[in-house]
Amino acid sequence: MNPYRLSESQLGTIARLADLADSVIAPKAADVDAESRFPSEGMRTLADAGFWGLTVPTELGGMGEGLRMTSAAVDTVAQRCASTAMVYLMHLCGVAAYKSSSDRMAEPLRAAAAGKHLSTLAWSERGSRSHFWAPMSQAEMDGDHVVLNGIKSWVTSAGHANGYVATTRAAGSDNPMAITLYLITDTDSGFRIESPWNAMGMRGNASAPMVMEGLRVAPSRALTDEGAGMDTMMGAVLPTFALGNSAVSVGCCEAAFAATQRHITGQKLEHLGQSLADLPNLRERLARMRLRTDQARAYLASSVDALESGDPTGMVWALGTKAQAAEAAIEVTDLGMRACGGAAFSRHLGIERVFRDARAMSVMAPTTDVLHDFIGKALCGMELF
Ligand SMILES: Cc1cc2nc3c(=O)[nH]c(=O)nc-3n(C[C@H](O)[C@H](O)[C@H](O)COP(=O)(O)OP(=O)(O)OC[C@H]3O[C@@H](n4cnc5c(N)ncnc54)[C@H](O)[C@@H]3O)c2cc1C
Description:
Blueprint: H1 8-35, H2 40-48, H3 67-78, H4 82-100, H5 106-113, E1 119-122, E2 140-142, E3 145-155, E4 163-169, E5 179-185, E6 191-193, E7 208-217, H6 229-266, E8 268-269, E9 274-275, H7 280-308, H8 314-345, H9 351-357, H10 360-363, H11 368-379
Parallel strand pairs: 1-4
Antiparallel strand pairs: 2-3, 3-7, 4-5, 6-7, 8-9
């Protein structure tokens, strides 16, 4: 099977990634979760093997891939460790933002390809919550510098990233959607990570709040023209985020399916001389897990096709794939918990970790609620905002 319709050479790259993920990422997944620690070993391995440059243009040292390989790669990592996959995805989102202004951001792109620059997005704010398209923070001019103040509520890789793509309302504008994107680097002073990340799932994510207080940056750090950030956010970053987020969900589904299949085919009801797989309701749950996983991945692959071909409905597909895969992840991991009973409730099968991780995607913005509203509006010919 080749669900993402990859070329021979792309399949080879994904096989190499799967080997690395099996040998380094999967063995650490339980510890990363239990200790709520950043998946440093896995991310370093991806960096050293060139995967931080997956989507960086080849002329800047990267692999020059796009949404298709983003989906396949993130799915592959998520099957082994969802936290690592989400950290990797947020990096690819930062890279997508840099690429949209590659004339200004060639340096971080080169560094990402060389495995020396980990990126992320600092968009959600305490004030406007999941409505990331309406930051409350506002840039101010101070001489020839820009001053940033504000509280970013959840920043994946906070304290570990080298580059943070931050949104802020443009200086002097009272329009919340007149957004400028700035690159903040780990060498800047004027920001701090407020508190450690401690969540029910995605515990390796380090998605902590980040406070910017009088953070001064040169205007050359702007990724976009003043107030023109929405085009980059929606046109360049959202497709990567929506498809990649969908791929994390699909990877969680696959991990839950594999663990459930192993358990019900491997465990016995010795007093009856049967295996758990002899129970028809457990087989039915496994079948539903398989079908829903395949559906979610097929929808994702169709979304890649729609976006790559420039289909005018591409953005609706992108929003739709995030919503449907996030809900699939919740359904499939719940089925796995029910099929494996008390064994799943304990930690050793790994299903409860995936069950917890899988809750994240539907609350990551745009949340499933908001996506359903957006899609409904698009289908009724209404403006989204
Ligand atoms: C693991 C993880 C990693 C994250 N990483 C990042 C990151 O790297 N960068 C970043 O910027 N953010 C990140 N986020 C933040 C994320 O994108 C959301 O902003 C955040 O989860 C929203 O939580 P909230 O409590 O503020 O939601 P709220 O906005 O308070 O939403 C609460 C509920 O209201 C619903 N709701 C909200 N608005 C509407 C509406 N208009 N219509 C109907 N229902 C609505 C929501 O669906 C939700 O059920 C991350 C979140 C998680 C969980």
